[in-house]
Automatic annotation (TrEMBL):
It comes from the Bacteria. This is DUF45 domain-containing protein. PANTHER family: UNCHARACTERIZED PROTEIN YGJP, UTP PYROPHOSPHATASE. InterPro entries: UTP_pyrophosphatase-like, YgjP-like_metallopeptidase. Residues 45-240 form the YgjP-like metallopeptidase domain. It comes from Mesomycoplasma lagogenitalium.
Amino acid sequence: MKNSILKEKKPLKPPTRKKEKKYLFEIENQKVEVFFRISKKHFCTLKITSNKILVLHNKTLQEKEIETLLKIFSENIKNHLKAQRIDFDNLYFYFLGQKYDYQIAQKGQSFYFSKPTFLSKYTFRNNEEEKIKDKLKELLEREFLKYLTSKVRYWEKIMEINYENEIALREKNSTWGTNYIKQKKIIFSKNLWAFSQEIIESVIIHELSHCFWGDHSKKFWAIVYKFCPDYQILTKKLNKKEFN
Ligand SMILES: [Zn+2]
């Protein structure tokens, strides 16, 4: 695999943070923007959110060093590119670790997804491209919330939590879940739906362990590992955006 560096000459639009530098790299024939920022705290770290690839480093880098770093991180960046939850150009999405092709069919005045079958019960009136995109996201969200709720109920019983948490989904990029212990409410990231069931369950177990301990103390981790011995492996996959 070849990575070439094309430094941008023009000033950036929209403006990035002052100390960030944007570079354009080519990975597998795809142009990718990678931002570099000096940070005293980080020797060298790659941070990927849904809309930004950022390298934090603790000193000014030479072009060669940047090239080396990119080689080191290229596997993670490739995974990130692959990890689009819905690919509208190639008509597929990932859901609970599985890849599904989708297809739209018409029935009288309305439309429905003839593939995959777990979405075929929903019908809709408008098949314009933008509407389809919104519809597909909405339906997957709905299915995912149903799935999450049943899994949380299951784990609440196993972990002997004697109340039911309220569950909601949010567009979260910084965390996978948050337990608002006092409100008995857990919010999960929408970005989770593409991952395998065991990865999602590791996030559920983490959040439910907060029902016992609010912090990340030893006692907290003891509970997490009791119910999810593979927690470390699963978290690695999660952060590398390996769906299964
Ligand atoms: Zn936590």
